[in-house]
Amino acid sequence: MPTIEDVVCPFCGCLCDDIVVRVENGEIREVENACKFGAHRFLTVKKHRIKRPMIREGQEFKEVSYEEAIERAVEILTNAKKPLLYGFSSTSCEVHEVAIELAEVLGAVIDNTASVCHGPSVLAIQEVGYPSVTLGEVKNRADLVVYWACNPIHAHPRHMSRYTLFPRGMWTDKGKLDRFLVVVDVRRTETAEMADLFIKVKPGYDFEVLNALRTILRKGDIPTNEVGGVPKETLKELVERMKNCKFGIIFFGVGLTMSRGKHRNIAEAIKLVRDLNDYTKFSIMAMRGHYNVTGFNEVLTWESGFPFAVDFTRGYPWFNPGETDANSLLQNRDVDAALVIASDPAAHFPRESVRYLAKIPLVVIDPFESLTSKIADVVIPSKVVGIEEEGSAYRMDAVPLRLKKIIEAEGLLSDLEIMERILEGVRRRLSKTREAVAER
Predict the structure, then answer these.
(1) Is the pLDDT of residue 79 over 90?
(2) Which of 89, 356, 391, 403 is the least buried, fewest Cβ under 10 Å from its Cβ?
(3) 140-176 pLDDT, tens per residue?
(4) How far is CA 109 from the centre of its chain?
(5) What order do you get walking across the sheet with 144-148 strand by strand?
(6) Residues 89, 140: one domain?
(7) Are residues 346 and 420 both part of a single domain?
(8) CATH number of the domain that residue 184 is part of
């Protein structure tokens, strides 16, 4: 049975790169080292697949060729006055590059799933900076680990075993014995059960608690006995541990980005880390969800200067979250067509956004059936990046890794091939339109 080692897992932002996959007769038979989510990703890759391109006719789908589906997608996008391109967090950076070019050519808006998860983190980072490190440095150096408003046991199952609590690092060679784990959350999670110190915060009071920690760090005291449901003595204990550690790290999740305060919560957490660096070495990192959501933010920033929710309708990139993000555009009915790739907004967006998405012409590119594919006008199946197609992706610490091709996917095109064909078709169609206008 052929064995492929050092495979990168295309599931979450950890991008675990030590996976071992065994293949027999073109099928994945065994997976080693992966968490339950990663193993499921590899072992069930053939299930719930979209097998053929489809175009909606009335209430039913009709199977068509790739050429017909791509031509219909080109027609939809070029006929639209303001199309939306959305998704991109579960596909490669190479696809991102082509999609951004497509958005520029169309004069479209391009956005990814960060706008409904860690978008506030990106805004805060732009405002106050990002004193971060790599996960390798955390593994080798961190003796104090803080998980704030996140539950890695559920969302990133190997995060603690690979990078924070259990691994033996260069200067933390005793594993858990060399580390102190703090969990801050609104409820006692599975991760909190493993903590040396659990701090329960009242929902919506993260900013106040972070600000109180900064005040204690600078002034030594606060004029109240508790903040956000946390006793002053507990806050003082945490500050002392932070000040006196050799290397500390705060990992924060969507519980911080999508609660009251949003990007202000993240900015305050970053300021706390900045203040702690007057005493010791301290860093902070966002717990990114989809395996290449970070990659899209990186690539779009190279290309446009902005990380998500970029509007090209003015002929240049315009960035104004709350106006140019996908959910706001759909809520305000400000787009008239959409292309969704490697995402399922119908399963996660508010009802009104999904209702409008179902009304406008919609193109979906995805390997798997989803709620979004069921309301689409054009459905184009693709290969799974990291299993059936290689590509580049960025880990949550912005370290780029190369995903491997493990098995063949007969009869399917990759996301990259599909997007390149759509871009080519859009260019050709717009060129013909310009020529027709010039002849008049």
Answers:
(1) yes
(2) 356
(3) 999 999 999 999 999 999 999 999 999 999 998 888 8
(4) 18
(5) 197-200, 180-185, 144-148, 247-252, 281-286
(6) no
(7) yes
(8) 3.40.228.10
